[in-house]
Structure formats: structure tokens, C-alpha cells
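Sequence, please.
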């Protein structure tokens, strides 16, 4: 089984579960922190949503580049930004050969 096929097999199950989890974070409790030093529930949800978007974009471009994007102010905005169907469509459009390529990892314009 190719990398792409194996990944997509699990991706479709996990994106549905991710959507359920972030959709169930109540707006009025989205600032909850398990520890004073921890991120809020909304910030953690945003990190997941943003990471998945960056992952898909990286496969499309052939280069991984992390860019910080501020967390939305409302949980509803985080949920609205997460579109598993669109992400899946984009992943399926990436050529199978791209999944086997090495990818440079960039941070602030420099390869790390």
C-alpha cells in the first residue's frame, strides 16, 4: 500500500473525530486552561486546525513552512475554519509520488 493510500485510510476517520471534538467545545468555556501555563481549549483546537491546513499545504507545495496565525477570538470561528471535506479533496489531488519525496522544513525563511 502506498503512503498516500494508507494515510487517507486513517485521515478520513480521524478528521470526522476531530470535527466532533472541536465542535463540542462550548463557547463559554473555550478559555478553559488545565494549568495556568497551558493553552486554552480554543487555542489547542486552533493549533490542530491550523496544523492540518499547513500539512495539506505542505504536501501541495513540496515544502513545509510553519507560519504562526493568531487564534480566532471565538470558538465558532475555529470550527468554521475546519473543513475536513475540503482538506480531503486537496489531499487526494496531491500526486502519489509527492508523498515519497523528502520535504525541506522552513522556519522564518530558513531551512531547519
Amino acid at each position: 500500500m502506498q503512503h498516500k493510500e494508507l494515510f487517507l485510510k486513517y485521515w478520513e476517520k480521524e478528521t470526522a473525530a476531530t470535527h466532533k471534538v472541536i465542535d463540542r467545545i462550548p463557547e463559554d468555556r473555550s478559555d478553559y486552561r488545565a494549568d495556568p501555563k497551558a493553552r486554552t481549549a480554543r487555542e489547542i483546537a486552533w493549533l490542530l486546525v491550523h496544523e492540518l491546513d499547513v500539512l495539506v499545504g505542505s504536501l501541495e507545495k513540496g515544502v513545509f513552512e510553519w507560519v504562526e496565525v493568531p487564534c480566532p477570538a471565538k470558538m465558532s470561528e475555529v470550527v468554521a475554519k475546519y473543513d475536513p471535506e475540503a482538506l480531503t479533496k486537496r489531499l487526494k489531488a496531491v500526486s502519489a509520488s509527492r508523498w515519497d519525496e523528502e520535504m525541506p522544513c522552513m522556519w522564518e525563511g530558513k531551512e531547519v
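The first strand starts at residue 64 and ends at 66.
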